[in-house]
Amino acid sequence: MNSSSATSIFSSGALKCHSWITQYLNISRKDITLEELNSVFVLRLLGGITFVSLLAVIGLVGNIHVIYIFGWKFAKSTDYKVFVLWLGWIDIAATSVNAPMLLYYLFKPLTFESDFLCKTFRFLQYLCAICSNCALVVIAINRCLKILRPLRLPTTPITAKRNCGISLVIAVCLSWPAIPLFSVVNSPTGIEGVTVRIF
Hints:
mainly alpha; Rhopdopsin 7-helix transmembrane proteins; 2 domains; 8 helices; 2 strands; 4% strand; elongated; disordered N terminus; GPCR_Rhodpsn_7TM
């Protein structure tokens, strides 16, 4: 198949689920390998791979700056500093652990083999997302109380740390079901004799 016909297939919107593979690869031959199918999927996911890579680099560099500035440049410990550092560490975990695992999956969408890596990836993905959201809810409640009750005693850094710990516990409780629910399974491709392992 030449590049112009491949481009026309991609731009025509004919690529839907597994049915587009047969059109793209001209499935009349019997020697199609799983690696060929995987490489076609990777070509289709190049935009996502580029976007995730860019977000991971920007997020990692930005959050390292946040940790450095709030952790070492500001000596006074406040509830605001605790919350910002907590969000920074969560985002560093997301960009340094979850993003590379997602990129690994995007490069092996059909040949992904590790059940352990699948479960770990999904658990950490949900853990970081839920923990970050819980932390933002805690910050919002803290800000609301400061506005509605300005004369009350301010939240201490110890209370802020306890609230961050509670957000982590809530995140673990809500994300652990990903471990038994997700796994790598065999899936038909619509191509005779070829099945893939996906999660």
